[in-house]
Every structure is written in structure tokens, then in C-alpha cells.
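Q: Two folds, back to back.
A: First:
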Amino acid sequence: MRASNVWKQPRAWLVVVVGCVLAALSTFSYLVPATDPEGHLHRLPLILVSEDEGVMAADGTKVDLGAQLVRGITRAAARDDRVEWTVVAERADAERALADQDAYAALDVPRDFTEKSLSLLTAGSSAERPALTVLTHRGVGGMAASMADKAVRKTAAKASTQLGSQLIARAKTAQKATAGPTATTGRAADPTRVGAQPQSAAATPGFLALLHDPVQVTAQQQPLDAGSASSGGTIPLYLAVALLISGLLPASLLTMLVDARLGYLPLEIGPRRLLKPVVGIARSSTFLAKAVIGAVMGFAAGAVVTEVGLVSIDFGAQAPGRLVVFCGLACAAVTLLTLALFAVLGAPGQILALLVVTLIGIPLSGGAIPPEALPAGPDALGQLLPARHVVEGIRSLLFYGSDASQVTTAWLVLGAYALGSVLLGLLGSHFYDRRGYRRAHEHELTLRTAEHPAPEPLPRPSS
């Protein structure tokens, strides 16, 4: 037979169509989540800390510019559902929320915000620019970190502009109040009064420019004692990709070697082709044998991947021991899922596993694009796939500790995947056995016993 004879077969070209469909599907799964994430952004969780104590004015009224700033931010957020601000009273509450993965970033309005803001209206060395602090967490990475930082800084810039308008109005009012009494009675206004401003300072161009943007924005990342790895929150995604691929490989390798050992597939190594006699074994027994070995192989592969990462890179992991166990379980669950799909669907099961675990699962995992920036449909699908829970579990164990709620959810979901895969493989293969769908015809089967080490044909039933 020549190659041209194969080319003439229509079915031989069906694989080209299948390959094109898979390529289009994988491209679609990667590009759709990355298309206009800003437009799909909804309810990005942020924290607003309102600590400003305000100051008492000369007339006995309280001036609280920080509270006004907080009210302005929350009113604006109510009209725009792209971000969701949660107001807390203490900075410790914001740091706790970041540590619990309840928000991506926080904006801290300090206790002396009003005092420093009004100090800009008084002449002397006591004037100091008010500050807003952007609080972030090292565990937030990828597009989530950039979106949160952009949203918080944009809010801070707008708040600075609004505060500047208020201060300029106060400066002009104070300037008129100072000029009036001076011109009529020759007495200057009390410079210690809140809002008082000497005319010479108010007229300075640099002073007016400062009032247009009076707030300085600083940044602080939590935790302060993190590891030296600069990639921060992007590490869980890369580690999850390595784990998912490492879970697929043992299943493919195990299927090839076990089926070759049982005589159902030839084993080709270079120019050599080994084909052993077919061994009579039920499908359910074959799957059970593969599942036990595959679980051990998958767990070992996941543990090795994690240990290599911990040794080669200073992650600053919060729970390294549990991280190794978790990654081992995640890898074993992927291996069992692939073996179950192999048992039920045959060779197409490997393609389906590749789609579910990597080609579709990774783009929807939330490791690169946060779930808040995904369309509703892909986001719901991503919650059902193992990749998202692998990423969330790794992120929690790396940066947040083993008590995070995301870790518990990830343990349960991956455990359900592992158990469900075993049940699916056993029930599917048992069904095939009951219906008589054997992997080999009767004349291909051989019987191996201790008395007959050489393969011996099975006896055929007498007519």
C-alpha cells in the first residue's frame, strides 16, 4: 500500500477537519475572555478605609474632609457597577479583608487627612500635603492587580481634584476675609483660625498649583515579609499550568504502557515494534488497575512539581507542606479524570480531557483575568472546571495560609473530581462489560497460567 492510497480515502482527511475545529475552539476559548475585559468588568471588590477624625473650626463646627471624600466615592460607585467599595472604619479591617481575599486592593483615608489638608491654607512650615495610601496584597496578580490599582488610583486622583476645588474656594474666602478687615480696621484676621490664609501665600502660583492636586498617593503591599519572587500573584497560574499538564501526562503514559503490556496496543520504540499476546481482562479491572497506579503517579508528579518550585524560587509560601499535598491531590485528580474519560470514550477521551483541563480551563481559571472581568457565561463555566480551583488553592496556600475559605472549597471540588472520576470510570467500564463490549475478539484472547507459561489459545465452545 502506498501513501497515495491513504490520501484517496475520505476518512483520512476527517482528521484535518477535527484538527481545525479543535484549533478554532482552543483559540476561541483563549481570545474571548481576553476581549475587552474592562467592558466586562463588574463588581470588582475594593475596600475604602474612613479613619479621618476631622478638626474643629473656630466657630465650633466640625470639618471632616475625609468623610466628604468617602461619601463622594460611594455615591459615584453606586452609579457604576464596575467596582464595589466596602467602607470600613479601621486600616486593620482593610488589611484583614485583603488577607481573607475579600478584596483586591484598599484605599486608606488616614486620621489626619483633614488636618493636613487645611494646613495647606496656613503659612508656615507646618503645612503638609495630605496622603492617601493604596493597600495591595502580594497574592493578587495578573490583570486583577492592574485593574484594582488602576481603579483605586483613578479614584484617588478624582478625590484630589475635588479636594483641591474645596481648598481653593476656602483659600479665596479666607483671602477676602483677611483683606476686608485689614482695609477697614487695619487688623489682620487670626491666622490660627481654620481656613485662614495670608494673602501672600494664596497668591503664590506654586501654592495655587499645589491646591489643584493637593493629595499625594502612596502604596504599600501586604505582607511585608513576603518572599523574594518578583512575579508575586502570577506564580499560581504558572504553577497550576505545570500541574495540569503533569496530570495529563501520567494518564497518557499509563494508558499506553498498560495497554501494551496487556497486548491491546503495540509498543513502538524507535524502529522496534513490540506486540504482546492479548490478555483476557475485564474493562472494569483494567480501569481499576490504571486508576490505582495513576493516582500514585499523579500525586508523585504534583509533589515533584511543587517541590521543584519551592526549591528553585523563594515563594515565601505560607503553608509549604500543605501546598505540596494539595498540588499532589490536584495532579492526581486530573490523572484520574483523564483515565476515566479514556475508559468511557476511548481515544477521544484524551482530547476531551485536554479541552476541559487546559484549553478551556486555563483561560477561565481566573489566574490571568479575574472572574469579575469575564463574561457571565464563561465565568459560570470556569467555576465548574478544575483549573480555577487549582489556581485558587495554590494562591491561598502560597500567600494567604491554609485557613482561607478558598482552600477548603478547592479541596472539596478536587476531591469530588477524583471520586467522581473513579465512579465514572468504574460504572462506564462495568456497563461495557455487562453489554459484552470486549476490547478484543475471542480468538485474540490467550490464557496464561503457571503450568503453561507460553500463551495458549482459549478453548472454543463445542457446538
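A: Second:
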Amino acid sequence: MDIQDLFHSCKSGDLHRLQYLVEVKEVEVDVRDKWDSTPLYYACLCGHRDIVEFLLEKGAKCEANTFDGERCLYGALTDEIRNLLKSFHVISKRTIRRDLFEEFLRRLLESKLHSDVVFSVHGEEIHAHRCVLSARCLFFAHMFKTKWHDRQRVELNHSNMLPGAFKATLQYLYTGHMEIHMDLVESCVKLARQCELSELISELEDRLKKTLSWESSKPGVRVTTLVLSPENSKETLQRDLAQLAHWALPEKLTSWILGELPFEPEMMPLTYPDICFSVSGNQFTCHKTFFCARSDYFKAIIEDHFGEAELNGSLPIVYLHDVTVDVFVRILSYMYSDSCDLHPDIVTDVLVTADMYLLPGLKRLCGVAMATCMDVSNVVSMIQTSRLFGLVRLESQCAEFIANNLPKIIGQEDFKQLVIEDASQVKGREETDSIDVIDEIRFYISSFVQTYSEMEEANDKLRLIDDLLEELDIEG
């Protein structure tokens, strides 16, 4: 429903609604409809400059010489919009704020952090991580166990192996996305066949066919870069990398998830761990690159040696205190796959630990999980929790829930106390001063009112708020 609303807002030019959907509801800006069109394309086609600018600022893809970029440019209603599109030529990555996991993996590939293998492709060195490649591709997993066993440098000098195609393939394995020059597509397809990446082959051939078909119908337009962004790429990436978290578990805990693994225990591939965490006597064999790159807390412990550590065989072992095994298993899952199981009984403990470990992305996931459990009995305590841990989206959702259920909540003592506390935060009160929670609730009551009956209902709720403020002897 939100996605349909997003497309409608872009077609009709409703900037206020679009801002709400993207910034509060966090709807993805690069979604596609059944005609393979994006919100940005419709905004360009309908001539809504302010909508186009907003989408570009939020990371909508619009690169020159790509299918999406050229299509938007060709379909733009005005020259003003075309010039705006051209001025945003540097937009080539998904917005970092909304895709921390993909950005982490992209930087992981580019930064060489804790790399344990180097591929030399006709003399050009490309650093990588055996654990990532083994989890994402059975071909690489097999080669690391056999022909490339114990080799930290792999020479690839075959005449059909081009550095650009190899780097693009690694980009796909690390991030689930690919940007490649049209001249390298054929080489990339050959490499994908060698690596037995059937999904990549299918995606490349399908996108190439669509791009060439569209290009042939637009004289003078030439697409030079092919961009792959499969719809299910993140889910596939999370599923594959989640295996690393499963394999990091101590043996006595593997029975929890063994049925979900695609391998029998004796067939599990090598994972090449380089760090061990001990939690309540349980040892988890992990990878520094995931923990250091995702958390400054673990970076300080591992790289700056602020933690308690000793050797466990060839692996350094770090003892973690103030965290239970149940919670750490979820931390582990998040580190590798950007997701974890957060049921109501444990989500608060995970939130507290995520805050301690400096994991803002996991805190946001906790906020999402908590929102699904929201009801009239816990919404006030939930809004207090959201403020304590800086969960802005959850706080807004709580305010919206209160606005929608105001008659049931406004008489609760904890809600009245929240209003009083917010009012006390306003120092040297003036007529223009406002109470945070009241402001938020009034916004959701008044916004998006379209019919007369909705207006009447909104006015009734606003009167309830005025009556409460009068009862509490507060001006707001």
C-alpha cells in the first residue's frame, strides 16, 4: 500500500505525502512497478520538479548513460528537469542512510580491511575475503578448499579473464548489485558461467535485452553502463552471509539452526575465522572484518587491544561480559546478515546491548520489531524507550498510534505524566512554545485529512487534547 502511495504521490506532485513516506515510513525510492518504471521516472514524466529534486537528494538512481538515467532524461517534461537530472550526475550509489549494510559491504570490498586473499588478474591486484566468497559462491568455496588451498595470492592470467569483468563479479558477490561497462558484459557472462552463477547470468542477459531494445527505439541515445539491481538481491545476500553466522556457533548450539543449513555437518565448508569470542563459556569463531567494520566498539577491542584477549590455538580469543548467549546469537546474526530474530521477550535486551556495542542499524531493527507489538497499554513506555535510545522513527510511530487511538489513551495516567514531563522541558515558556508529544500527535491528527467526516473526527480529537491541557493547567 505504501509503495502504491509513493507512486501516486510522484505522479500527482504531492511532496508533503512523499516526504512522509520516504522519511517516516522509510519506503525505498528505487522501487519498480510492473512496467519496470521508478518513482523518479514518473516525476520526470509528469513535470514535478520539486518531486524530482527530493528523490534525487534521497538517492534515486539517475546516472548518465544507464537505462534508468537515459529513460528519465528522455521522458522529462521540461528542460528545467533535464538540467536538474544532469546536475545530479554523481548519484551512483544507493543512499547510505537507508542501506547501511550494502554500503558496509561495498566499503569492505574497496578498503581491503582484513583481506585474506589477493587475486592478480593480468597484474592488477584485487583484494577479497575468502569467507564472503565461500558463502556466496560454491565455485569459490570449492577452489579455496582444493586448488587455492592455503594460497594468499591467486594468479588469474587467462586471456578471457578481464580485470573489469572480475571486479564487477566480485561487486555482485559482495553487494548483490553490479555496474559494468557494456563492452564488458559478454566477458562477465562467461565468468559467471565459469563460477556457476546462474542467477547472475539470467539477470545480465535480461537487463541487456531490455536495455538494447529501449536504446534501439530512441535514436541518438546510447547506454554505456549496465546496472543490475535485482529486486531480491538483499534477501539473497542476507541468506548467503547468514551461513557465516550459523557456522560461527559453538557445536552445542548448532542444533538450533542445523535444519536450516544447505549442508550436512560433515560437508560444511571452511569459513576461515580469525577471531574467537567467548560468551559464558561458549566460543564463537568469527571474522574480524565484519565486527571491526560494523562496530567501533569491537574495533577498539580487536584492533586497539582494549579487550581481554588470549590465544585459542591460532585464534585470538576475546571474552565478552554483560551479554547473554541468546542476545549474542542475535548480535552475531545481525553482524553477518543485517537481520535477526527479535521476539518480544528479548528485543529490549538486544536493544540495550546494541546501544552498548554501537550498532545503530540493529537498534533500528529493534525499533521495527517493537512497533509490531505496540498497543494502548505499552505505547507510552515505548515512546519513552524510543527517546532514550534515539529511535526517531519509533517515536513518530508511537505518536501516530496515539493520534489514531486518542480516546483510549488520553485518560491514562502514564500519558498525562508524559505530557507534564514534556511541558516541564520548555523553559521560559512563551506563547509560541510547544510540547513535543502534543505537537507530534496534533500533526498526525491534522495531516492527510481529505473528507468532511475525517475533518469532524480530527476536530473531536483536537478538542480532547485541549481539554486535557486545560485539566493539567498547561498551555500548549
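Q: And?
A: The longest strand covers residues 117-121.
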